[in-house]
Amino acid sequence: MWWRVRLSQQLLSTAWEKLNGHARHLCTRLKSHPESSDYLTWRQQFFQRRLRLGLWLGLFWSLIGAVGGLYSVLVEIEELRANVLTIYGDAAIADALRDLIIFYSLAVLVVLGACLVGQKTRWGQRCPVVWFLLFACSLNEFLGQVIATFFQIPLSPETLTFLAIAIIIPVHWRLHLIAQALPIAYYGIVYPAIGLTTLGTTNIYQLYSSGKLVEIAWVCCVSVPCCLSIRTVEAIGNGSSSSSASVSAFGFP
Q: Rounded CA gap, 221 and 19, in Å?
């Protein structure tokens, strides 16, 4: 019997050493290296160009969504009330949803428009981080969550937006991490703290039902690879800039 215990201890020790080695290797790969001035200049210019592109795309997408949402809550309001009554057991939710969609649609369009205008100003060009956070929080449902709180309607984070923003603006991974953490934290911490865990009289939409727990886990699984991939892109870009600078220092074009 003793040899089985000893064998189990050796296997556990070997597995732990391998896991610890992989963790140290990953931390070393993700460790920030000194960033060259050429790379910083390129990243700043690239960031502003892609942010401008993202703002226009976000404004176009939000405009389409606003038209569809307003049509549903204004033209087809009776059908919406019937569906809400069937699903949630309270037709009054349809009126709250109507007011929410109207207010939220206008708020998103105003924020994105203000970002487009503000980015062109002298102060806006010096502080693009502010416009990025406003842009990301307008599209990843964080702004919608804050607004929907006043209408007693919980909203979950928009995971596809995480991926879309990461593809359009693959730099500044820390900003992406902040923008992704805000709606997740609001959904998982703020809603339970204020008691907004149900919608209507039914209990199948409780915040911590199995479906919602899977949804939160999916959001976390999406956000982590996004930030890791952005960090990898930045490391590659920084390495390329450093290599180019080193080659130029030896007189090569």
A: 20
**Alpha carbon distance 106, 97 (integer Å):** 14
Q: What global pTM score does this model have?
A: 0.71
Long-range interactions of 19-26: CB distance < 8 A, separation 24+: none
- Cβ atoms of residues 212 and 206 within 8 Å: yes
- Identify residue 155 by its one-letter amino acid code: L
Instruction: Give me the residues paired with residue 202 across strands.
Output: 199
Burial of 198 (0-12, 13-18, 19+ CB in 10 A): middle
Structure token pair of residue 242:
């450093």
The pLDDT tens digits for 197-215 are 777 766 545 555 666 667 6
Nearest to 50 by CA among 175, 145, 219, 218: 175
If one counts every other C-beta atom within 10 angstroms of the C-beta of residue 182, the result is 20
Convert the pLDDT of each residue in 168-208 to its tens digit.
887 787 888 888 889 988 888 888 888 887 777 665 455 55
